Amino acid sequence: NAGVTQTPKFQVLKTGQSMTLQCAQDMNHEYMSWYRQDPGMGLRLIHYSVGAGITDQGEVPNGYNVSRSTTEDFPLRLLSAAPSQTSVYFCASSQQGVYEQYFGPGTRLTVT
Amino acid sequence: QLLEQSPQFLSIQEGENLTVYCNSSSVFSSLQWYRQEPGEGPVLLIALYKAGELTSNGRLTAQFGITRKDSFLNISASIPSDVGIYFCAGDNNAGNMLTFGGGTRLMVKP
Asked: What is the residue-wise DSSP string for A32-68?
């Protein structure tokens, strides 16, 4: 099993550009989440999904969109990138009823 | 932050023991400890579910407070490969809503 995979690993965007961060898991987990990590802030939840077709907002959802058309994939879309979205983004998955989360390796995004 | 971790930074000699603390004013249904190495995602170390629960994983020991608002993680006989950022994370019984502490950055000097 590859676990949770994320692409790209690094990305530089200009302000106003849009892009999609990809996340996939091969563990058949129902739950998937997106977090951002900023220095000294820990990880903050952006959006999450409890199953295909179901998504909900986390702590810091503004400026991001998600969809969940399959169990395996959970892409995160930046609609119009802003410098405040410079961060490291982590995707995670977990089984229903089990709180432990498995994290991907992260995408380091810089918005200039 | 909802979960306060202390200390924020810890530099110790190899072989020493250390303890990281996690405190909140909120009640959590579960409390987890993760370790993150540079350039990687966090990896689960220990998960706590019951009030007062004390759990070990090798040289790591963690306990969930009886009020379910606090926890500690103890690492004994530290080694250089223990370096990284240690996070506590609490689940507020809303399924996938994990709240993370700010992290403790650990350095171990040989």
From this structure: EEEEEE-TTS-EEEEEEEEETTEEEE-SS-TTEEE--
